[in-house]
Amino acid sequence: MNKAFKLLILVTLFLQSDFIHAQNFGIKGGLNLATMLSKDNDNRYSDNFSANSGIHFGFTFEFPLNDVLSLSPELLLTNKGLKYDLDEDESKVSSDMKLYYIDMPVMIKTRYNWGNDKKIFGATGPYLGMGVSGKSQTTTQYQGESVCDKKDIAWGSSKSDDLKRLDWGWSFAGGIQIEEVELSLSYDCGFANIAANQENGTIARNRVVKISIAYQFGK
After folding, report:
1. Terminal Cα-to-Cα distance of the chain (whole angstroms)
2. Which domain holds residue 58?
3. d(Cα 132, Cα 107) in Å, to the nearest integer?
4. Of 17, 25, 189, 205, which is least surrounded by CB within 10 A?
5. pLDDT digit string (tens) for 32-69?
6. 194 lies in a domain?
7. Count of structural domains within the chain
8. What's the angle, vertex CA 84, arms to CA 89 and CA 150, rounded to 5?
9. How many CB atoms lie within 10 A of CB 200?
10. Does 140 map to a domain?
11. Pairing of strands 91-115, 24-39
């Protein structure tokens, strides 16, 4: 987690050297509700998943393209992952997977005046993410006994690894701006198959809902 935070700061300082003098700059954070699409040729496992709560925070930039449209890249440290509970006969399995990513969405944003320093906005565009850390915890209960297994996520592309690092997909967002403050709701739909072992048609794709607040400097 500390390495992820340091990477976020270093990349931001690099981007800021080019962006901050020319355009608006902001800070952003909020709540994540993350899950995955998970299936193979036999089953759709994500039907048993539930949302795993987490956070996101980072920095936003904005480049006006005309009076209506702007280009809005962001740099975020964000939680992804999943939770599931499975009951079978006399056993119960509960799992909690938390993943940490550096995400870089680049969206086209449009705003419309709503009066009294209020605006509504919508945005959409691709995102690119890199997995930097992750942990999973699985608890199995059987005949009154409980066993808990904790481990770090093994990132890589070999069959012995858990997940691939690279994630990419498409983001959709909308919200309201009141003076320098933006409140937004967004959805990240992962297109990348991040399953390291893809035998039998195994697919794992990230899905994240974000509730955010941002403060824009230079508005």
Report:
1. 32
2. 2-90+98-132+153-217
3. 23
4. 17
5. 999 999 999 999 988 889 999 999 999 999 888 888 89
6. yes
7. 1
8. 100
9. 9
10. no
11. unpaired
